[in-house]
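Researcher: Let's try something more involved. This one mixes different molecule types, so please make sure each is placed in the same coordinate frame as the others.
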Amino acid sequence: MIALLLRDLRLAMRAGGGFGLGLAFFLMVTVLVPLGVGPEFEVLRRIAPGILWVGALLACLLTLDRLFALDFEDGSLEVLATAPIPMEGVVAVKSLAHWVVTGLPLTLIAPGLGVLMSLAPEGYLWLVVALAVGTPALSVIGAFGAALTVGLKRGGLLLSLLVLPMYVPTLIFGTDVVTRGARGLDPGTPLLFLAGITLGAVALLPFAAAAAIRANLK
Amino acid sequence: MSIWEYANPKKFMQTSAWALPWVTGLAVVLLAGGLIWGFFLTPDDFKQGSTVKIIYLHVPSAMMAVTAWFMMLAGSLIWLIRRHHVSALTAKAAGPVGLTFTLIGLVTGAIWGQPMWGTWWAWDPRLTSFLILGLFYLGYIALWEAIEDPDTAADLTSVLCIVGSVFAFMSRYAVMFWNQGLHQGASLSIDKEEHVSNVYAFPLWTCIAGFVLLFVTLVLLRTRTEIRARRMKSLLARERVA
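Model: All components are placed in one shared frame. Result:
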């Protein structure tokens, strides 16, 4: 499993792996929004948590279709299916690798983009905490969507139709954590909900995704 | 005699052909009766005026929108466990029906909300979760359409249906989880005293029964169409080989 994790990470880091594309997209979204809605300080400060979360969500979505599709095309997914580790483990490791190359860097650069969005100073800590807690759910849910659409030629649009509704709870609670944090209120309750969603998704969805991949390989 | 006999498409076709006119007739009678009773023979509410009467469409369709998903869940589980094709096809047939009920629920809610809440739409937990349910229906139908191999499609949509049940459950009970928001709580309950006056409750129950039967009618009809389409496909394939 560790070998698989390292292989996926290496593939993502090397040229053409798409690493950094998600980050660049995240950066673009946060640059475009102030240009679009105007640079008023109060407006930006109010919408900052939401925009940063939506940007992170879309950046995550962008890289999802590569999660299983490349391995499906060159046949290595079939090799993995016959490997001694269970498919659930493969899915979990691949989602972890996806999180390390998208969710984690997004979390790390988010405070910098918060400056562009003139986020309130109290919000930075909570932005990082919320993204760190919430983005693993995005990767796992995305892995499920990618597993459903892996056999399709043009699954990208369908993938977003399937995955985005499932991202809504994470978005709602994640934004709520940052908004409350930025206003100096106690963000404990939404943070617990966010953590609950992540833990539930991490615990259950690899099984669903593995079932979907098995159905696709049949 | 067991319920699994109906997993045989032939037996299903026979029984449903016999049952369909009866279910359809009863659905029409109950719906017509309930709606006429509700629209014309009940008094206007002293606060809401005649807008209260949209309840006869809104509540049953919203209830059925969620119930349809649970019916699809049952069909999907039976498909995954026992591999009965008819059960997968009933789930497929219920998808667009459920989506339609969801849309009716949303639209009638908006029409009622405009004069009552002063807004067509509010981002209240129940409305939001219901909208998400509608998106899930869209995704479910799109996934069925996108995959060519029927068995793979049935497998994948079944898995999606199981995951989506979490959201169907959430939209059913959102009012109880979060008591913020505009949408009121339960309007009807069997064990407690009615929240809605009996004048409105009786025609409402009639409409609900009518909607349940309407759902059964549509699903039976659509499943029969699906089975016939499958038969046609295999006949055509056989002809091509011969």
